[in-house]
Amino acid sequence: MNKNKSLDFVPFNQEQLNSFLSLRAGEVKLGERIQFDVSNTTKFVILGISEDIGPRANNGNGGAANAFNAFLSKFLNMQSNEFLSGEDVAVIGTIHASSNSNEVSALREKVAELDSLVIGTLSKIDFINTQLIVIGGGHNNAYPIMKALSAQHDSLHILNIDPHADCRPLEGRHSGNPFSTAILEEIISSYTVFGLHEQYNSTAILDFLKEHNCETTFFENYLDGRSLSDDLKNYLASKGNSFGVEIDLDCIENMPTSAFTPSGFSLNEIRQAVRQLAKSKPIYLHLPEGAPKNPEEKTIVGKALAYLTTDFVKSSK
Known about the structure:
By secondary structure, the chain is α/β, with parallel strands linked by helices. It has eleven helices and nine strands. It has a nine-stranded mixed beta sheet, sandwiched between helices. β8 (about 245), α10 (about 265-280) and β9 form a beta-alpha-beta unit. α3 crosses α11 (about 295-315) and α4 runs parallel beside α5 (about 140-150).
């Protein structure tokens, strides 16, 4: 990456891979098998986004810029074996975005620039026969992902598992309004969000969801015995395979994220959800909002992202 640039796409290469890889005699790691370029054998494309300007522009915490590297350090060192060998996975690179400003208006302008870079990067890839996995950064990046993929698919339905609906007003781009932006621009056919936290969504947002016929469930429903697996089963029966999956890591209890929560789904519950959804071959999986700030948190977030990614890849086959 050009260190003088605050917005850049850096293609992945062998030198970068080697900086994360720990080789061991008699073992083969995923990092020795994954690809860097999309080819006719590629089934899964991984894009990293290293930024926290979106959450900061939403008055949230920093740290989301660290998630992708935390993921790489764990994912690339997983074993290549009969369950997942890695040859059909391509890690194409990382989008970096940063801003020294703490002024909200300046951050939101930078997020709009980031939108354009994400759209431009993804628009160069044919996702008709491959599935996209985007890791890291804030939930603001859901909007450019949806924008880019909507151009390749006639109908795009979105399922989000998230404590927050992220349907704030269009007051400048940030991590709190990717879905309201997509809904009002009519680039998606439907928006469904499971696991909302009742007291962390404003009346205005709840009214917006109702006005636009968005299907919702609340985390409190699951505390009372509702089944997430049943909700996912019903969703899949109605949406087929023309859908994208958003998993905000904020939904996982005690996960180091931009909006940490002590009450949420367990990591195993979200792993089960990803495995269930992946069987219907979603168009993409987006894993944002991990925000590790120290070595212990980087281990937690990195391993969680690696598990969720390998769950998605293995269950999609």
